[in-house]
Amino acid sequence: MEAQQILSGFCPKSPSIPIVKHPFSLKFNSLPSSCPSIQSLNLEFPSGAFHPTSTAHKEVCSSSPRRIWCSRSNSTAEAKEEGHEVRSQVTVRKKKLAVFVSGGGSNFRSIHEASKWGSLHGDVHVLVTNKSECGGAEYARNNGIPVILFPKAKDGSNGLSPSDLVNTLRRFEVDFILLAGYLKLIPVELIRAYERSILNIHPSLLPAFGGKGYYGMKVHKAVVASGARFSGPTIHFVDEHFDTGRILAQRVVPVLANDTAEELAARVLKEEHQLYVEVVEALCEERIIWREDGVPLIQSKENPKEFH
Ligand code: GRF
């Protein structure tokens, strides 16, 4: 799709990116400006983990910006006459990510591995879970990532309140929140504090087979039972309901004639791991742009005039 046809008049908030004039510009999320210390309750710092009061501060002030090629209109009259575009390099600050999980955390793992191997211009700084013993939380502890319990346990003994969670994520200077198999509804306080900055992955082609009650194997069972010939993961921004936020990316897999729900789940999960990493790469490189009607699009890295 041509940028000119679909975009207009946004103004970036990030000072690290030059303002792009017509025909299009990008919508960025606000960035933290200070390096405060963390003094939160209910945080687990596994042995060998960095402590945010020290290391996070260092990371904020020294995180290496990545050079990214961007296309933009050339403002010189000469170039305009010739209809040229200038490909210029811009620098993008490394992003801080919070991942929310309730289960095994295989999507969390693939995102963490991509950041470790450098394909992702972001780091997972904190893991949030409602199940402190789940596979995802264990993986976080083994990899020196602090674990936060949210929401509060029923007896109130453990876990953060919504406003404490927002404050804690702010103190970690989290830029983006990635839900990866987190089964609790996200409180409105968090959605307001992280507008257009929370993603979820769902294992069906939304809006089909989504909403309350559609989670885990239930989704795949319903897909197989429906006779649908295709399924696949959807990544969407999160609003205050289950699975209804704006769709950002999807990938299609076939549903085979003799598929079990488990076989379909495995096929979809394989795609989830790739798709989530690709989308988070775009997020961290500030390649998500918002169409005028509120639909988010991903700007292609190879050809910045293409959006999908
Ligand atoms: C995935 O299928 C995801 O789409 C859904 O929950 C599952 C989480 O799997 N939201 P894992 O914990 O990442 O392995």
TrEMBL record:
EC assignment: 2.1.2.2
Keywords of the record, alphabetical order, are: Chloroplast, Plastid, Purine biosynthesis, Transferase, Transit peptide
Q: By its UniProt entry, which CDD domains does this protein fall under?
A: FMT_core_GART
Major enzyme class:
transferase
A GO biological process held by the record: 'de novo' IMP biosynthetic process
Localization of this protein: Plastid, Chloroplast
Q: Name one GO molecular function term.
A: phosphoribosylglycinamide formyltransferase activity
KW Transit peptide (keyword) present? yes
How is this protein annotated for GO cellular component? chloroplast
Identify the main location: plastid
Q: Which Gene3D superfamilies match?
A: Formyl transferase, N-terminal domain (3.40.50.170)
Q: Which reaction does it catalyse?
A: N(1)-(5-phospho-beta-D-ribosyl)glycinamide + (6R)-10-formyltetrahydrofolate = N(2)-formyl-N(1)-(5-phospho-beta-D-ribosyl)glycinamide + (6S)-5,6,7,8-tetrahydrofolate + H(+)
- Entry's family note: Belongs to the GART family.
- Protein name from the UniProt record: Phosphoribosylglycinamide formyltransferase, chloroplastic
Which organism is the protein's source?
Answer: Clitoria ternatea (Butterfly pea)
